[in-house]
């Protein structure tokens, strides 16, 4: 599956042409070309690599999965690895799609490791920003990164909503401990996957704006700076979510400890109240003579003593909030 586009002087010249025609368009002046390949092999990239002079190591990284987000510079081109992120609220899972990008002075080649990333959304964004199209490759690269970083921000916001729900559950009057632990574990797992691909992006975008790469010119630099700012916000927000999840877990443990202490306090208080009649009846149950033994008055005296002492202890414990 391949997609192609050619721009000349800021106007879309042609799209969905064969990959073999890329070199023909590059031979024309003021022309920028974009090519997209989905799940290619090294053999699939070999012809294109020969036409564009792509480095062998970059081609190997483009087909190997689980590369870290990075920007590598080679003679004549740069190689970029980024991840698109999407948070599925139904399954409460964070999914990532890896993209490899070859950046040459007049061509941009995107390599998708799977079909999870909607490349059509990128072309639609390019069509909505035709005022930047004259910049060529920087215009194409900005539209791609802008969409990816927006996806990072949306995923962080969605995960933020999940963390807020966890915070509300912690302070429920009768929280479901099992569900709270399961959702907390899922959120922590999703956040770990998110931070792994979001945290390095601000540094990567900052490197793309270096003058020696000649990507961020006077026209596109403000737009790259805007993407860089959004990437930094997403990374900082993800880091803040990690701290909030840690706080949720610590708060949950503290509340559990407080509830246990309260229960133990109440049980101890009631045990003290019950100990009074037990002591009285135990005393009167001894097998020796005592005042009132075998008489009605002895029964009433013991009953009054039990009631008075028990009520007194209850009032005292209640006053001190022990019951």
TrEMBL record:
It is a multi-pass membrane protein. Its main location: membrane. InterPro entries: CorA_cytoplasmic_dom, CorA_TM1_TM2, MgTranspt_CorA/ZnTranspt_ZntB. It comes from the Bacteria. One of its GO terms (cellular component) is plasma membrane. It is found in: Cell membrane. GO terms for molecular function: cobalt ion binding; cobalt ion transmembrane transporter activity; magnesium ion binding; magnesium ion transmembrane transporter activity. Signal peptide: none annotated. The chain crosses the membrane at residues 267-285, 297-317. SUPFAM superfamilies: CorA soluble domain-like, Magnesium transport protein CorA, transmembrane region. Gene3D superfamilies: CorA soluble domain-like, Magnesium transport protein CorA, transmembrane region. Keywords: Cell membrane, Membrane, Transmembrane, Transmembrane helix, Transport. Belongs to the CorA metal ion transporter (MIT) (TC 1.A.35) family. This is Magnesium transporter. It comes from Amycolatopsis pretoriensis. The lineage of its organism: Bacteria, Bacillati, Actinomycetota, Actinomycetes, Pseudonocardiales.
């Amino acid at each position: 599956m391949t997609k192609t586009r050619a721009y000349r002087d800021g106007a879309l010249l042609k799209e969905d042409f064969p990959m073999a025609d890329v070199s023909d368009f590059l031979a024309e002046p003021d022309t920028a070309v974009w090519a997209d390949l989905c799940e290619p092999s090294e053999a699939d990239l070999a012809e294109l690599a020969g036409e564009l002079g792509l480095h062998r190591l970059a081609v190997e990284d483009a087909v190997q999965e689980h590369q870290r987000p990075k920007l590598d510079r080679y003679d004549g081109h740069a190689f970029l690895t980024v991840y698109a992120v999407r948070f599925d609220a139904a399954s409460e899972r964070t999914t990532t799609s890896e993209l490899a990008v070859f950046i040459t002075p007049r061509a941009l080649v995107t390599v998708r490791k799977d079909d999870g990333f909607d490349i059509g959304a990128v072309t639609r964004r390019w069509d909505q920003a035709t005022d930047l199209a004259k910049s060529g490759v920087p215009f194409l690269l900005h539209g791609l990164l802008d969409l990816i970083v927006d996806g990072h921000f949306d995923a962080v916001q969605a995960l933020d909503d999940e963390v807020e729900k966890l915070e509300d559950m912690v302070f429920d009057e009768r929280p479901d401990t099992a569900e709270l632990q399961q959702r907390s574990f899922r959120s922590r797992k999703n956040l770990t996957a998110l931070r792994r691909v979001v945290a390095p992006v601000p540094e990567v975008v900052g490197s793309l704006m270096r003058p020696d790469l000649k990507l961020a010119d006077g026209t596109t630099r403000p737009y790259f700076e805007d993407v860089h700012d959004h990437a930094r916000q997403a990374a900082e927000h993800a880091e803040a979510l990690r701290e909030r999840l840690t706080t949720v877990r610590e708060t949950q443990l503290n509340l559990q400890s407080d509830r246990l202490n309260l229960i133990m306090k109440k049980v101890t208080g009631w045990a003290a109240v019950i100990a009074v009649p037990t002591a009285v009846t135990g005393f009167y149950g001894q097998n020796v003579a005592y005042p009132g033994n075998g008489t009605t008055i002895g029964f009433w005296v013991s009953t009054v003593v039990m009631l008075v002492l028990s009520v007194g202890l209850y009032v005292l414990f209640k006053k001190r909030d022990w019951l």
